[in-house]
Amino acid sequence: MKRILTTTFAIGICLLSACTREYPEFVTELDEMLAQREIYNEAFQSKVGEMKISLERQTDPLQIYDLQSRLAKEYSVRNFDKSQSYLESNYEIARQLRNERLVREAEIAMAFNFSSAGYYQEAYTILQRLNPEELDKDQLEDYYFAQIMYSRRARNDAPNEESLKQNQLDLENWLNLVEPLVDSTSYRWNYIQWEKSRNRMDYISGLSLALKTLETATKGTSNYSEAGFYLALSHRDVGDEYNYVKWLCNSAMNDVRIGSRSDIALISLGRHYYKNEDLDKAYKYVVEYAFPDAIKLNSRYNLQLLSALVQKVSESNSRIIAESRRRLSLALIALAILSVGLIATFILVYRKNVALRSTHSRLKSSDNMKEKYITAFMMMLAENTMKRRNTDIHEAKMLRQGRTKELLDEIERRQEEEGENDFIKLFDTTFLDLYPDFVEKFNELLKPGEEIIPQEDKALTPELRIYALIKLGVTDLHEIAILLQYANSTIYNYRVKVLAKTLYSKKDFEDRVKKL
To answer: Both 441 and 330 in a single domain?
Structure first.
């Protein structure tokens, strides 16, 4: 009997190993780093925290300008809104000082930041009002690179073949204009040569130039992440899938080290594993990491990249279920063979089988619910993104035609016709489906007579909605404000109002809410 059970266990281990995918060491290393991202996030917060302390102590406008420029650069890969806020403050400082050079410098930085995050209309407006003839050599180089970033991002988001070709021509033009201004030993110069080789489809030279670009980038900087990504693309261009994945992982790991949420390499990894039908990996990289990062970064470019991909991963959940059924069938066949003539072993296997079926049923139910909510949210996101893009194009066209009054009337009419926030409705319904007794348990933490009762079924009040997010782990006041589209002060006032209704301290109360 002991020998039979040992044999059964050994075959079970073999089956499990056959169903488990093997990954290269660098993929495993990336997964470990992603699991420990909080450590690297704390290092980022410590770094910018020291800079913020220095900023608070400064009274010299030029020193404040310099510190805010450095903070804007740090936040450009982590939080677009904060980065843009520092750049806008620099623009105001430059205007107050009546320093035209600093005004132009701040505008170029804002245009680059807008382009990088996919806010094309805002970037275009700034770039159009800048006159290259008024810029000195250093500013002209930065101006051309802002145009390069705009053309690159717009090219990747081109709605049709004609727009793609035009953006490609624009990119080539800006690369040619900036090349004479750039030091031939610098990171930027090597990047220019790499980009031009790809435009010529000279992928062999492109691989060599990508390696040179990486050599001129400092590890632990955003340039290194970019250079690693360029090298990955070059390996893909020559059909080297192994090194394509390797350098995507290296780029993504460098992003983790510097606390970056740009995640371009991680999104490409998710797309790679989706195409290779490794949906578990695709879901992990795209839905668990890249999509929440894109929301926190507030990158319209990343959200557009992710909207279709997340939806595809969600729609493919049925394939995961089919694969689970196949694996379960294989396990049942093996166990049935082992149990022939062995009554005791058969009973044991039967009980295990019943447990597997129950677990599989629960997993299937969970997958269906996850698919339903992710699909609903992503459809709403995709529709809003498309609606905003069409609105931007339409408004830009009316502005160019000088139809300002007609545009203002149209905006006012649209604001009157806009209904209740679809995201809030979807959040309330989803959350209450997942935690149907949340309101009841939440009110048990309040003083008698201070209960908060929603007026509608499947809806939350603003106070309940804030603490629903806290239960889900979103505790940062600014992040809550972004998600619910309230001002920071509004969120603060609601929380103070609720705390007055409970006998607990703020920390104790919020800890109890998280456990509801």
So the answer is: no
